[in-house]
Specification:
alpha/beta, Rossmann fold, 2 domains, four-stranded parallel beta sheet, 9 helices, 16 strands
């Protein structure tokens, strides 16, 4: 394509070196930047991916371990002055004040072939097929035991749920239109346990509204600093129902069959069969916009676009029950813990390549989603 520069691994007598600066703090953004960087590495078989990020959120280290394409990592101190360190990557091996260890330099990450900035790593530019994050293999046994100790039956299937609320420390009252009333999900949770016969694992943090005790409900949100345990639960869940949040994007990144409910503007899932359950959108004249029309018009995206002048009405408890019943039916082959979907990075040389800048794709180009009407 005119104006683009093709890059091919076949032109190199060594692995292509890619360095990516993952500049976001929020969970979902960080997950999606990892996926896009991994998709570029996957399109260049034999390449090596090194990532740099600010060490300002506890989940970042574990998510980085979940990306099988990453072969080197640099964590820089948190702070507003930690901006894109382009001047570090001029190939000068002896320059002072650069946090490169011997392994980073030996692999050539101080002088990469490609440097990916945060703006290049928008999920809309992720190359197909979308990569998969996976639990680090050396941690599966201990995390499995931890989930059992919490009360999750190893021989019984479970669903994961997450409801976004306004009191999370790092996102306090940010994007309030994405918040939901968690109590509206309680009838759905009861239905999963008492009629479908599963267990429910709630994800989140201790700032969330406490739920009443319920046989079959395991509430991981009551504990702090247990992100690996929650990610592991997502990897083994029969299905997931969440709101418009980073946890939903993590579920999709792990290929958990997922519903994003109460969607305001960002669908946040991208796998075939996933469900987008959009809030009812009412125009000032009282007319209701169908979700499919919103998608075609660009008012819904894989990421974030926020229409104005439209009244939004949350999904009802009955609608949430219905979508959970739908997920139960389409995952009928899962009768215990779901087998994790894993992906090994490409390692074989190939003449395939990529072109920069990466082309942005609409959500319908990613997957065959179900828009819940």
């Amino acid at each position: 394509m005119a104006g683009k520069t093709p890059l091919f691994t076949s032109k190199h007598d060594r692995p292509m070196v890619i360095a990516a600066f993952l500049g976001h703090q929020a969970l979902g953004e960080f997950v999606m930047q990892h996926l896009t960087a991994a998709s570029i590495a996957g399109a260049l078989p034999g390449s090596k991916l090194g990532v740099i990020y600010r060490d300002d959120r506890s989940y970042k280290n574990f998510i980085t371990l979940m990306n099988p394409y990453v072969s080197a990592t640099i964590r820089i101190p948190a702070g507003n002055n930690a901006v894109i360190p382009l001047d570090w990557f001029d190939g000068d091996d002896d320059a002072p004040n650069r946090p490169f260890d011997a392994a980073w330099r030996d692999q050539g990450f101080h002088n990469p072939d490609i440097f990916l900035t945060p703006s290049m790593l928008d999920i809309g530019r992720c190359l197909a097929p979308t990569p998969v994050l996976r639990i680090p293999p050396h941690m599966t046994d201990i995390l499995s035991q931890s989930l059992v100790q919490r009360g999750v039956d190893r021989d019984r299937w479970f669903a994961c749920v997450h409801m976004r609320e306004p009191h999370y420390f790092w996102r306090y009252d940010v994007d309030p239109f994405r918040n939901v009333d968690p109590k509206s999900y309680l009838p759905m949770i009861s239905n999963i346990i008492n009629k479908q016969g599963g267990q429910v694992v709630r994800l989140g943090d201790p700032s969330m509204t406490p739920f009443p005790e319920m046989d079959g409900l395991i509430d991981l949100s009551r504990s702090d600093n247990n992100f690996p345990e929650q990610a592991f639960a997502l990897s083994r869940a029969r299905f997931f129902v969440g709101a418009e949040s980073g946890t939903t994007q993590l579920a999709s990144a792990m290929k958990a069959p997922a519903v994003t409910s109460n969607v305001h503007s960002a669908i946040g899932v991208w796998n075939d069969g996933d469900v987008a359950m959009v809030k009812k959108s009412v125009l000032p004249d009282g007319n209701i916009i169908a979700p499919r029309d919103m998608l075609k018009s660009g008012a819904l995206t894989i990421h974030t676009l926020r229409p104005v002048g439209i009244k939004k009405i949350d999904n009802t408890p009955d609608e949430l029950i219905a979508v959970a019943d739908h997920m139960y039916k389409i995952t009928s082959d899962c009768v215990a813990w779901r087998k994790e979907i894993t992906e090994e990075p490409n390692t074989h040389a190939s003449s395939s390549g990529i072109s920069l800048p990466l082309q942005w794709r609409h959500i319908h180009e990613y997957a065959d989603l179900t828009l819940w009407e």
